[in-house]
């Protein structure tokens, strides 16, 4: 998606430790016009699949998932990273290691909102090592729902997550796959660049 790649090159900031900061438009301050184009693109890429639920993980995926859900006309369910008084009753839960935060969370989804008969599309902002998507896929499997695939805004192609998930048979559609980043020069190369 050229619009997204151009925006990453313009406003993305490369930090040490393979961190790409896109918080000015994607995951802190959100550019809703860009999100609309992202939503349209995911709808186009998954148009041949029946989807009745979007599943994401808090917090950065929620805004994107909500816009995507408008194009599928389905609800969004998000996995919580901590148990609260608002999530009562039976839950699906699995541990997830966060690349960004360097810690492990127990994510959970209420059994009330996910189950057999659901056809689930995962949506997230980043794919690096793939642990968040693995956790979400495990919850979908535990619920008896069908995993349709995963829509990722930015994939770090130089990290193992995307290749591993695809090898496991999960359809992963990433809108921008970063092949390399150079903190010194600020250069970002995407898969498919000439």
From TrEMBL:
Reaction catalysis annotation: XMP + diphosphate = xanthine + 5-phospho-alpha-D-ribose 1-diphosphate
Domain Phosphoribosyltransferase: 47-157
InterPro entries, alphabetized: PRTase-like, PRTase_dom, Pur/Pyrimidine_PRTase, Xanthine_PRibTrfase
Annotated EC: 2.4.2.22
Record bears the keyword Transmembrane helix: no
UniProt-annotated binding residues for 5-phospho-alpha-D-ribose 1-diphosphate: 128-132
Gene3D superfamilies (UniProt xref): 3.40.50.2020
Keyword annotations of the record: Cytoplasm, Glycosyltransferase, Purine salvage, Transferase
CDD domains xref list: PRTases_typeI (cd06223)
Family membership noted in the UniProt record: Belongs to the purine/pyrimidine phosphoribosyltransferase family. Xpt subfamily.
NCBIfam families associated with the record: PRK09219.1, XPRTase
Name the UniProt record assigns to this protein: Xanthine phosphoribosyltransferase
Organism per entry: Lacrimispora saccharolytica (strain ATCC 35040 / DSM 2544 / NRCC 2533 / WM1) (Clostridium saccharolyticum)
Native organism taxonomy: Bacteria, Bacillati, Bacillota, Clostridia, Lachnospirales
